[in-house]
Design goal:
Number of helices: 14
Mean pLDDT: 93
Oligomer: single chain
């Protein structure tokens, strides 16, 4: 019996339409010249790439499991990945030194201007709900993209990474798995907790943030970039989560919504030290040549998150939805 994953989303252009048709067994894959013409950070290429990557997670209801390792699909995916990775290396790579790349993460600006600052200070409940819907593409599989790196590490780096991942997966308790806690947050906000439910609604910028994790995680040659990405997430999570917890309280989002971010304030403050000293430190002791890749992973994560945040804030400040399909604004049921 086929695994019943989410339904395939609506295509957003010729690339995603071609991949969708091929997955259904109803058409050909896009040609390489079509890949070359597509906007690299745009809806079409990013959705097509997301479709390819999702086969390595829960798949899709309409797609046979064998498609995961289909050689023709993998060749098309590789062409899209090459464009995506080349663009990230051109647009995001700022630091060669890991210490320099980390230094910027360890300083909290006095006057912050990002999404968590906005939601804490002036965000409305409908904006909190949109943020959760967009982030659900990652948080309903939280920590899973990072797990791909575990077989590619050893010694102190592996042990540190495994310890953090164990916490993300609830320390062996199903009800404390962070993906389950995020589903509880979504319930508080009146959102559908079905895996993949908001893929059609999510912006290209949101797809980019999740696709980058899968890109780094699925390639052994990018293990250093994945570690840099993971370090950025853990180092910036605790202060950002504190602001988001305050936003949940101020907007009346609900106790589970507050708890999700309160949990990350405490847990990720500990994780930051483990990631910096054991995961990065251990990796670079064993493979010092990966330092530029770790720095790249840090820079790339900041780049894609800044793009995502800029998209959200531009839409919200113009009083328009950040989603392709806006949510009903009245729906949140708050306990």
């Amino acid at each position: 019996m086929e695994h019943q994953g989410p339904r395939l989303p609506t295509p957003r252009g010729p690339l995603s339409r071609g991949v969708d048709a091929y997955l259904r067994g109803a058409g050909r894959l896009p040609r390489l010249e079509e890949v070359a013409r597509a906007e690299v950070y745009g809806d079409d290429l990013q959705l097509a790439l997301y479709l390819c990557y999702e086969l390595h997670y829960r798949g899709f209801a309409e797609v046979p499991s064998e498609r995961e390792w289909d050689p023709d699909l993998l060749r098309t995916r590789a062409a899209m990945e090459q464009r995506f990775l080349s663009a990230l290396r051109t647009d995001a790579h700022v630091h060669e030194s890991v210490d320099e790349a980390l230094a910027g993460l360890l300083v909290e600006p006095v006057e912050g201007t990002g999404v968590s600052h906005f939601l804490r200070a002036e965000g409305e409940l409908w904006q909190v709900r949109e943020y959760a819907a967009q982030r659900s593409l990652y948080h309903l599989k939280e920590a899973d993209p990072h797990a791909w790196v575990l077989p590619r590490l050893w010694g102190r780096a592996k042990a540190g990474m495994a310890a953090v991942e164990f916490d993300e997966w609830g320390g062996g308790r199903a009800e404390r798995v962070h993906a389950a806690l995020f589903a509880d947050l979504m319930t508080d906000l009146g959102l559908d907790t079905t895996y993949g439910r908001y893929l059609d609604a999510a912006s290209a910028e949101a797809l980019v943030t999740v696709n980058m994790m899968s890109l780094f995680g699925l390639h052994r040659t990018l293990r250093g970039a994945l570690v840099g990405h993971f370090a950025t997430v853990e180092i910036t999570s605790s202060p950002g989560s504190r602001r988001l917890a305050e936003a949940m309280r101020r907007t009346g989002a609900g106790p589970a919504a507050e708890h999700f971010y309160d949990e990350h304030v405490e847990a990720d403050a500990v994780h930051e030290q483990v990631v910096r000293h054991d995961v990065i430190g251990g990796l670079l002791e064993q493979e010092p040549q990966l330092a530029p890749d770790v720095a790249f992973g840090i820079d790339a994560t900041e780049f894609v998150e800044e793009r995502f945040g800029a998209r959200l804030l531009a839409d919200w400040r113009a009083s328009r939805s950040s989603l392709r399909t806006p949510l009903a604004r009245e729906a949140a049921h708050i306990s």
